[in-house]
Design brief:
By secondary structure, this protein is mainly α. It has 16 helices and 2 strands.
Protein backbone atom coordinates (compact mmCIF):
# COMPACT_ATOMS: atom_id res chain seq x y z
CA UNK A 1 0.00 0.00 0.00
CA UNK A 2 2.11 2.92 -1.25
CA UNK A 3 0.88 6.02 0.61
CA UNK A 4 2.48 8.97 -1.12
CA UNK A 5 0.57 11.94 0.27
CA UNK A 6 3.28 14.40 1.33
CA UNK A 7 2.57 15.50 4.92
CA UNK A 8 5.36 18.04 5.16
CA UNK A 9 8.01 19.80 3.09
CA UNK A 10 10.69 17.55 4.62
CA UNK A 11 9.67 14.44 2.69
CA UNK A 12 6.95 11.89 2.24
CA UNK A 13 5.46 10.22 5.26
CA UNK A 14 7.16 6.93 4.39
CA UNK A 15 10.53 8.68 4.17
CA UNK A 16 9.99 10.42 7.50
CA UNK A 17 9.10 7.15 9.21
CA UNK A 18 12.08 5.36 7.70
CA UNK A 19 14.37 8.21 8.79
CA UNK A 20 13.09 7.93 12.37
CA UNK A 21 13.66 4.17 12.34
CA UNK A 22 17.13 4.51 10.87
CA UNK A 23 18.16 7.10 13.45
CA UNK A 24 16.81 5.08 16.38
CA UNK A 25 18.32 1.81 15.17
CA UNK A 26 21.74 3.36 14.55
CA UNK A 27 21.89 4.35 18.21
CA UNK A 28 20.54 1.05 19.56
CA UNK A 29 22.68 -1.11 17.28
CA UNK A 30 25.69 0.87 18.49
CA UNK A 31 24.88 -0.35 22.00
CA UNK A 32 24.77 -3.94 20.74
CA UNK A 33 28.14 -3.78 19.04
CA UNK A 34 29.71 -2.23 22.16
CA UNK A 35 28.70 -5.35 24.07
CA UNK A 36 30.44 -7.68 21.63
CA UNK A 37 31.49 -7.83 18.01
CA UNK A 38 29.75 -11.22 17.91
CA UNK A 39 26.43 -9.36 17.98
CA UNK A 40 27.03 -7.94 14.53
CA UNK A 41 25.02 -10.79 12.99
CA UNK A 42 22.09 -9.80 15.22
CA UNK A 43 22.52 -6.15 14.21
CA UNK A 44 22.41 -7.13 10.54
CA UNK A 45 19.22 -9.11 11.16
CA UNK A 46 17.62 -6.06 12.82
CA UNK A 47 18.39 -3.91 9.79
CA UNK A 48 17.04 -6.56 7.42
CA UNK A 49 13.84 -6.99 9.43
CA UNK A 50 13.08 -3.27 9.75
CA UNK A 51 14.75 -1.31 6.98
CA UNK A 52 14.52 -3.71 4.04
CA UNK A 53 11.11 -3.40 2.39
CA UNK A 54 7.80 -2.93 4.14
CA UNK A 55 4.92 -0.60 3.34
CA UNK A 56 4.80 1.25 6.70
CA UNK A 57 1.05 0.64 6.83
CA UNK A 58 0.52 0.92 10.58
CA UNK A 59 2.52 4.14 11.00
CA UNK A 60 0.64 5.55 8.02
CA UNK A 61 -2.74 4.90 9.60
CA UNK A 62 -1.50 6.33 12.92
CA UNK A 63 -0.42 9.52 11.15
CA UNK A 64 -3.75 9.96 9.38
CA UNK A 65 -5.59 9.29 12.63
CA UNK A 66 -3.68 12.31 13.96
CA UNK A 67 -4.47 14.36 10.86
CA UNK A 68 -8.19 13.62 11.28
CA UNK A 69 -7.95 16.13 14.12
CA UNK A 70 -4.83 18.22 13.68
CA UNK A 71 -3.82 20.29 10.63
CA UNK A 72 -0.60 19.67 8.77
CA UNK A 73 2.58 20.53 10.72
CA UNK A 74 0.66 21.15 13.95
CA UNK A 75 2.54 21.19 17.23
CA UNK A 76 3.34 17.64 18.29
CA UNK A 77 3.46 16.17 14.78
CA UNK A 78 7.18 15.20 14.94
CA UNK A 79 6.53 13.37 18.21
CA UNK A 80 3.54 11.58 16.67
CA UNK A 81 5.54 10.50 13.61
CA UNK A 82 8.26 9.14 15.89
CA UNK A 83 5.71 7.25 17.97
CA UNK A 84 4.10 5.93 14.80
CA UNK A 85 7.50 4.65 13.63
CA UNK A 86 7.63 2.43 16.72
CA UNK A 87 4.71 0.44 15.28
CA UNK A 88 7.02 -0.72 12.52
CA UNK A 89 9.35 -2.25 15.12
CA UNK A 90 6.38 -4.01 16.69
CA UNK A 91 5.34 -5.29 13.28
CA UNK A 92 8.85 -6.51 12.48
CA UNK A 93 8.76 -8.49 15.74
CA UNK A 94 5.42 -10.03 14.77
CA UNK A 95 6.69 -11.01 11.32
CA UNK A 96 9.88 -12.61 12.65
CA UNK A 97 7.95 -14.67 15.18
CA UNK A 98 5.20 -15.48 12.68
CA UNK A 99 7.72 -16.90 10.22
CA UNK A 100 9.10 -19.19 12.93
CA UNK A 101 5.61 -20.41 13.90
CA UNK A 102 4.58 -20.95 10.29
CA UNK A 103 7.94 -22.41 9.22
CA UNK A 104 8.01 -19.84 6.40
CA UNK A 105 11.25 -19.77 4.44
CA UNK A 106 10.88 -16.33 2.87
CA UNK A 107 9.81 -12.82 3.81
CA UNK A 108 9.60 -9.99 1.27
CA UNK A 109 11.38 -12.10 -1.29
CA UNK A 110 14.36 -12.77 1.02
CA UNK A 111 15.21 -15.59 3.44
CA UNK A 112 13.23 -15.29 6.68
CA UNK A 113 15.21 -14.36 9.80
CA UNK A 114 15.36 -17.89 11.21
CA UNK A 115 16.60 -19.15 7.85
CA UNK A 116 19.33 -16.47 7.77
CA UNK A 117 20.49 -17.38 11.26
CA UNK A 118 20.48 -21.09 10.43
CA UNK A 119 22.56 -20.47 7.33
CA UNK A 120 25.02 -18.42 9.38
CA UNK A 121 25.36 -21.30 11.88
CA UNK A 122 26.13 -23.76 9.10
CA UNK A 123 28.61 -21.41 7.40
CA UNK A 124 30.55 -21.12 10.67
CA UNK A 125 30.73 -24.89 10.96
CA UNK A 126 29.44 -24.82 14.52
CA UNK A 127 28.18 -27.82 16.45
CA UNK A 128 24.54 -28.58 17.06
CA UNK A 129 21.51 -27.98 14.89
CA UNK A 130 21.56 -24.99 12.56
CA UNK A 131 17.78 -25.12 12.41
CA UNK A 132 17.45 -24.93 16.19
CA UNK A 133 19.99 -22.09 16.36
CA UNK A 134 18.08 -20.23 13.66
CA UNK A 135 14.72 -20.54 15.44
CA UNK A 136 16.15 -19.54 18.83
CA UNK A 137 17.99 -16.57 17.35
CA UNK A 138 14.86 -15.37 15.54
CA UNK A 139 12.85 -15.53 18.75
CA UNK A 140 15.46 -13.35 20.46
CA UNK A 141 15.49 -10.97 17.50
CA UNK A 142 11.71 -10.59 17.77
CA UNK A 143 11.97 -10.02 21.52
CA UNK A 144 14.57 -7.31 20.96
CA UNK A 145 12.39 -5.57 18.36
CA UNK A 146 9.42 -5.69 20.72
CA UNK A 147 11.47 -4.13 23.51
CA UNK A 148 12.77 -1.41 21.23
CA UNK A 149 9.29 -0.62 19.93
CA UNK A 150 8.21 0.25 23.46
CA UNK A 151 11.36 2.31 24.06
CA UNK A 152 10.79 4.39 20.94
CA UNK A 153 7.07 4.80 21.54
CA UNK A 154 7.43 5.80 25.19
CA UNK A 155 10.14 8.36 24.50
CA UNK A 156 8.20 9.91 21.61
CA UNK A 157 4.71 10.01 23.07
CA UNK A 158 6.03 11.62 26.26
CA UNK A 159 6.50 14.82 24.28
CA UNK A 160 2.72 15.28 23.95
CA UNK A 161 0.28 16.58 26.59
CA UNK A 162 -0.16 13.97 29.32
CA UNK A 163 -3.88 13.29 28.80
CA UNK A 164 -3.45 12.74 25.05
CA UNK A 165 -0.30 10.65 25.56
CA UNK A 166 -2.22 8.43 27.98
CA UNK A 167 -5.00 7.76 25.46
CA UNK A 168 -2.46 6.91 22.76
CA UNK A 169 -0.57 4.62 25.14
CA UNK A 170 -3.77 2.74 25.94
CA UNK A 171 -4.21 2.05 22.23
CA UNK A 172 -0.59 0.92 21.91
CA UNK A 173 -1.09 -1.48 24.82
CA UNK A 174 -4.31 -2.87 23.35
CA UNK A 175 -2.65 -3.27 19.96
CA UNK A 176 0.09 -5.48 21.41
CA UNK A 177 -2.34 -7.58 23.44
CA UNK A 178 -4.77 -8.08 20.58
CA UNK A 179 -2.19 -9.15 18.02
CA UNK A 180 -0.95 -11.87 20.37
CA UNK A 181 -4.54 -12.94 20.99
CA UNK A 182 -5.17 -13.04 17.24
CA UNK A 183 -2.03 -15.04 16.61
CA UNK A 184 -3.02 -17.58 19.26
CA UNK A 185 -6.54 -17.85 17.82
CA UNK A 186 -4.93 -18.48 14.43
CA UNK A 187 -2.81 -21.27 15.91
CA UNK A 188 -5.91 -22.79 17.53
CA UNK A 189 -7.73 -22.76 14.20
CA UNK A 190 -4.79 -24.54 12.57
CA UNK A 191 -4.60 -27.10 15.38
CA UNK A 192 -8.31 -27.86 15.32
CA UNK A 193 -8.13 -28.42 11.60
CA UNK A 194 -11.62 -27.19 10.78
CA UNK A 195 -12.42 -24.73 8.01
CA UNK A 196 -15.00 -22.53 9.71
CA UNK A 197 -15.99 -19.10 8.27
CA UNK A 198 -16.85 -17.58 11.66
CA UNK A 199 -13.59 -18.72 13.20
CA UNK A 200 -11.65 -17.38 10.21
CA UNK A 201 -13.30 -13.97 10.56
CA UNK A 202 -12.61 -13.88 14.30
CA UNK A 203 -8.91 -14.41 13.58
CA UNK A 204 -9.03 -11.65 10.94
CA UNK A 205 -10.57 -9.21 13.42
CA UNK A 206 -7.89 -9.60 16.07
CA UNK A 207 -4.82 -10.55 14.05
CA UNK A 208 -5.30 -7.96 11.31
CA UNK A 209 -8.26 -5.56 11.50
CA UNK A 210 -7.56 -4.18 14.95
CA UNK A 211 -3.79 -4.50 14.75
CA UNK A 212 -3.20 -3.17 11.25
CA UNK A 213 -5.80 -0.41 10.93
CA UNK A 214 -8.10 0.26 13.87
CA UNK A 215 -5.64 0.60 16.76
CA UNK A 216 -3.07 2.64 14.80
CA UNK A 217 -5.83 5.02 13.70
CA UNK A 218 -7.16 5.39 17.23
CA UNK A 219 -3.63 5.82 18.56
CA UNK A 220 -3.09 8.77 16.23
CA UNK A 221 -6.52 10.25 16.88
CA UNK A 222 -6.07 9.87 20.64
CA UNK A 223 -2.69 11.58 20.52
CA UNK A 224 -4.36 14.44 18.66
CA UNK A 225 -7.22 14.83 21.15
CA UNK A 226 -9.94 13.30 18.94
CA UNK A 227 -13.59 13.33 20.03
CA UNK A 228 -15.71 10.32 20.99
CA UNK A 229 -17.62 10.74 17.72
CA UNK A 230 -14.42 10.57 15.71
CA UNK A 231 -13.27 7.50 17.64
CA UNK A 232 -16.53 5.76 16.72
CA UNK A 233 -16.13 6.55 13.03
CA UNK A 234 -12.49 5.47 12.91
CA UNK A 235 -13.23 2.30 14.87
CA UNK A 236 -15.83 1.21 12.34
CA UNK A 237 -13.67 2.21 9.37
CA UNK A 238 -10.68 0.39 10.85
CA UNK A 239 -12.47 -2.93 11.28
CA UNK A 240 -13.91 -2.76 7.77
CA UNK A 241 -10.68 -1.87 6.00
CA UNK A 242 -8.65 -4.23 8.16
CA UNK A 243 -10.88 -7.08 7.07
CA UNK A 244 -10.65 -6.04 3.42
CA UNK A 245 -6.85 -5.86 3.76
CA UNK A 246 -6.59 -9.39 5.18
CA UNK A 247 -9.03 -10.92 2.71
CA UNK A 248 -6.98 -9.42 -0.12
CA UNK A 249 -3.90 -10.90 1.53
CA UNK A 250 -5.60 -14.30 1.56
CA UNK A 251 -6.35 -14.06 -2.15
CA UNK A 252 -2.79 -12.98 -2.90
CA UNK A 253 -1.51 -15.92 -0.86
CA UNK A 254 -3.15 -18.24 -3.39
CA UNK A 255 -3.48 -16.28 -6.63
CA UNK A 256 -0.76 -13.62 -6.26
CA UNK A 257 2.28 -13.07 -8.45
CA UNK A 258 5.39 -14.17 -6.50
CA UNK A 259 7.43 -11.35 -8.07
CA UNK A 260 5.11 -8.87 -6.32
CA UNK A 261 4.13 -10.73 -3.14
CA UNK A 262 7.65 -11.94 -2.29
CA UNK A 263 6.26 -15.41 -1.48
CA UNK A 264 6.23 -18.60 -3.56
CA UNK A 265 3.01 -19.18 -5.52
CA UNK A 266 0.44 -21.10 -3.50
CA UNK A 267 2.35 -20.92 -0.21
CA UNK A 268 -0.87 -20.47 1.78
CA UNK A 269 -2.18 -23.70 0.27
CA UNK A 270 0.93 -25.61 1.31
CA UNK A 271 0.69 -24.17 4.83
CA UNK A 272 -3.00 -25.09 5.01
CA UNK A 273 -4.06 -21.70 6.34
CA UNK A 274 -7.60 -21.61 7.76
CA UNK A 275 -8.78 -18.57 5.83
CA UNK A 276 -12.28 -17.45 4.92
CA UNK A 277 -11.41 -18.28 1.31
CA UNK A 278 -10.71 -21.90 2.17
CA UNK A 279 -13.68 -22.20 4.52
CA UNK A 280 -16.08 -21.01 1.82
CA UNK A 281 -14.54 -23.42 -0.68
CA UNK A 282 -15.00 -26.39 1.65
CA UNK A 283 -18.61 -25.37 2.30
CA UNK A 284 -19.50 -25.22 -1.39
CA UNK A 285 -17.36 -28.10 -2.70
CA UNK A 286 -18.88 -31.26 -4.15
CA UNK A 287 -17.46 -34.63 -3.19
CA UNK A 288 -14.74 -34.61 -5.84
CA UNK A 289 -13.70 -31.01 -5.12
CA UNK A 290 -13.65 -31.66 -1.38
CA UNK A 291 -11.36 -34.66 -1.92
CA UNK A 292 -8.96 -32.47 -3.90
CA UNK A 293 -8.99 -29.83 -1.16
CA UNK A 294 -8.45 -32.36 1.61
CA UNK A 295 -5.56 -33.96 -0.24
CA UNK A 296 -3.81 -30.75 -1.29
CA UNK A 297 -4.40 -28.11 1.35
CA UNK A 298 -1.68 -28.39 3.98
CA UNK A 299 0.58 -30.56 1.81
CA UNK A 300 4.07 -28.97 2.01
CA UNK A 301 5.06 -30.87 -1.13
CA UNK A 302 2.21 -29.51 -3.23
CA UNK A 303 3.48 -29.13 -6.81
CA UNK A 304 2.80 -26.18 -9.13
CA UNK A 305 0.32 -28.42 -10.97
CA UNK A 306 -1.40 -29.15 -7.65
CA UNK A 307 -1.54 -25.43 -6.87
CA UNK A 308 -3.15 -24.77 -10.25
CA UNK A 309 -5.70 -27.52 -9.63
CA UNK A 310 -6.68 -26.12 -6.24
CA UNK A 311 -6.93 -22.61 -7.64
CA UNK A 312 -9.45 -23.92 -10.15
CA UNK A 313 -11.47 -25.50 -7.34
CA UNK A 314 -11.53 -22.15 -5.52
CA UNK A 315 -12.87 -20.54 -8.67
CA UNK A 316 -15.42 -23.25 -9.43
CA UNK A 317 -16.87 -23.28 -5.91
CA UNK A 318 -17.35 -19.51 -6.08
CA UNK A 319 -15.12 -18.97 -3.03
CA UNK A 320 -12.79 -16.58 -4.83
CA UNK A 321 -15.68 -14.47 -6.10
CA UNK A 322 -17.39 -14.41 -2.69
CA UNK A 323 -14.23 -13.08 -1.06
CA UNK A 324 -13.80 -10.49 -3.83
CA UNK A 325 -17.36 -9.35 -3.27
CA UNK A 326 -16.88 -9.12 0.48
CA UNK A 327 -13.75 -6.99 -0.02
CA UNK A 328 -15.66 -4.57 -2.26
CA UNK A 329 -18.55 -4.39 0.20
CA UNK A 330 -16.23 -3.63 3.13
CA UNK A 331 -14.43 -0.90 1.17
CA UNK A 332 -17.76 0.68 0.25
CA UNK A 333 -19.02 0.58 3.84
CA UNK A 334 -15.76 2.16 5.03
CA UNK A 335 -16.16 5.02 2.55
CA UNK A 336 -19.68 5.69 3.85
CA UNK A 337 -18.33 5.76 7.43
CA UNK A 338 -15.85 8.45 6.52
CA UNK A 339 -18.47 10.54 4.74
CA UNK A 340 -20.47 10.74 7.96
CA UNK A 341 -17.56 11.57 10.26
CA UNK A 342 -16.03 14.79 11.67
CA UNK A 343 -12.70 14.42 9.83
CA UNK A 344 -10.36 17.03 8.47
CA UNK A 345 -10.91 17.00 4.65
CA UNK A 346 -7.30 16.08 3.81
CA UNK A 347 -7.42 13.13 6.19
CA UNK A 348 -10.76 11.94 4.82
CA UNK A 349 -9.33 11.94 1.30
CA UNK A 350 -6.17 10.14 2.41
CA UNK A 351 -8.17 7.46 4.23
CA UNK A 352 -10.35 6.94 1.15
CA UNK A 353 -7.22 6.39 -0.93
CA UNK A 354 -5.79 4.04 1.66
CA UNK A 355 -9.05 2.07 1.70
CA UNK A 356 -8.86 1.56 -2.03
CA UNK A 357 -5.19 0.62 -1.84
CA UNK A 358 -5.87 -1.93 0.91
CA UNK A 359 -8.74 -3.52 -0.98
CA UNK A 360 -7.14 -3.66 -4.42
CA UNK A 361 -3.40 -4.02 -3.80
CA UNK A 362 -1.30 -6.59 -5.67
CA UNK A 363 1.43 -7.16 -3.09
Amino acid sequence: MAERVDPSPTGTLTERITAELSSFLTERIGLLTQVSADLDVLAQAVRAAVLTGGKRIRPTFAYWGWRCVQPEAAAGEPELVRAAASLELLHACALVHDDVMDSSDTRRGQPAAHIRFGQFHREQGWSGSGQAFGAASAILLGDLLLSWSEELFTAAIGGLPHDRARVATDQFDLMRTEVVAGQFLDMLAQARGAFDPDEALRVVEFKTSKYTVQRPLLLGAGAAGGSAELVGVLSAYGLLIGEAFQLRDDLLGVFGDPSQTGKPAGDDLREGKRTLLMALAFQAADRFQRALLQAGVGDPGLTPAGVAQLREVLRQTGAQQQVEQRISERAGEAARCLAAGPLQPAAAQALLRLAQAAAHRTS
